[in-house]
Amino acid sequence: MKSIAASSLAGLLLVGASATAQTSVPSEPDMVADTCSVCHGDDGISPRAQFPNLAAQTKDYLDTQLKNFRNHMRADPDAKTYMWRMAGALSNATIGEIAEYYSALPPPKNSTGESPAQVAAGKEIYEHGIASENVPACGACHGDAGAGNAAFPRIAGQHPEYLVAQLQAFRSKARDNAIMYANVQQMTDDQMRDVAAYLASL
Asked: Of 51, 82, 58, which is closest to residue 158 (Cα–Cα)?
């Protein structure tokens, strides 16, 4: 997919300017994907850690999250700031095509800049959990290699900063998910960073 043109960026800024601009969201999936690339990067690899990589994300998870954004069911701060308006005008069919497009892209390459000690500690938590703190193994839902499974998202190769932010949002209930809250409520920030470092290395 080609990089976004200046005119597309101008259109994106217009969409973010007011609620009435939702009608400016392109209806064709390719155009929407170009708009998405402003934050999520060409080919689904985000240039900024604030925004997740979408390449190779599971189709079911993307479909669900886009509908949750559109319907204001996901209400963490970044969802409200960026995604409520961006997804507000999308039809179910277009959401499905966007999810299909990103799920078919090659996955992000693993990061090589993570601390080996953090990666090892994170791998232990990911594979075995922390029994003394009632933290289950992440791989039970997200798979042995973090590739996800249907409704459970791919988290391998994700920006570690993004992963930590999401884990903290689950813990604080800023991102409402009862299962994830139960899983991470006892985790410390350091443990979250360890898990994120491991996943970034995959």
From this structure: 51
Q: Which of 82, 73, 92 is nearest to 13 (CA)?
A: 82
According to DSSP, the residues that pair with 197 across neighbouring strands are: none
Helix, strand, coil percent values for the chain (each to nearest 5): 60, 0, 40
Closest of 54, 98, 50, 88 to residue 68, by C-alpha: 88
Nearest-5° Cα angle at 19, 16 to 22:
75
pTM of the model: 0.83
| Burial of 7 (C-beta count, 10 Å sphere; 0-12/13-18/19+) | exposed
pLDDT tens column, 30-76? 766 678 999 999 899 999 999 999 999 999 999 999 999 999 999 99
What angle separates helix 59-70 from helix 92-103, to the nearest 10 degrees? 140
Output the DSSP codes for 83-129.
IHHHHTT--HHHHHHHHHHHHTSPPPPPPS-S-HHHHHHHHHHHHH-
- Convert the pLDDT of each residue in 165-183 to its tens digit: 999 999 999 999 999 999 9
